[in-house]
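User: Sequence in, structure out. Go.
Assistant: Echoing your sequence, followed by the structure tokens.
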Amino acid sequence: MLESYSPPHQGMGLHLHGSPGDSGLRIMAMLHHAAASQAEHSLLWPLCAQLQRLGQSVLVIDGSQNESARTPGLAQLLSQTAWQAATELRSMAERNTESRRVATLPARLGLARLRQSAQDNGLAPLAALQRYVRGYSTVLIYASAEALTPLLGEQSLQPLLVLPPDTEHLIESYRQIKHLAVFADTHCTLAALEGSAPPEGPQRYDWSRKQSSHQSAAQDSQTRLQRLDALLQCSQRHLGDAPVLLRMRWRQVSDLHQLTLHMLKTACILPMHEHGLQAVPGADAAALPSLAWSH
């Protein structure tokens, strides 16, 4: 959807000043639902690319993908010591920085195990994750509301929920908003994608609605705006707060800049700690399996 980019504006740099790597780990989240995955991906990767342009080393914890022997991920990472895992991912981060790729880690099973692993170590889930992903300045967790909720705890984090251009997913979107509000006391940011502009040239006739295609498109757009407004009002009335709504127009790079700035402002920043990274005598980091994949 946003294939081309322009240089980020100064506000983004201000939010990043002094924060990468040294002062802590920035955690972001995007909600996943299988029926909306195409729309989600159309925003996920441009957002990550924009963060990398700002000098961030980005790792996507992908809860939509299963780990396996051929594609190891977070589950395998958690089975290692924190020192081994951090050494492996730090090396991967350096390679991805050179190639300008976004590292991804399959994590559907691992996210389910992370909370128990955190409890075993007496840590909050995100603090436990931090021990394993050193070498990255920003981690974006891409997972369902059900998988994300147990990880949030008391952390101040505002997940991103992508709304596809059609209106079919609004009920499911409200379900995710409600789940996070009820079980994690967390509110979302809504990124409402707009469809591409109608092609130029002679108008076509919409025989099913007995009017021009431009009239049908205008009516669909108006209906969507009304339903979005109803979604916000319903959230305000029943959940106590309405999500922030960001409009994502077709190929409008300024909208991507605005979203990136908002994600930086609403991210959770975990301070750097030294616990749990004890070197394992005789451990050979070069012999560890490669866990992070590139997009």
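User: And one key feature?
Assistant: The mean pLDDT is 81.
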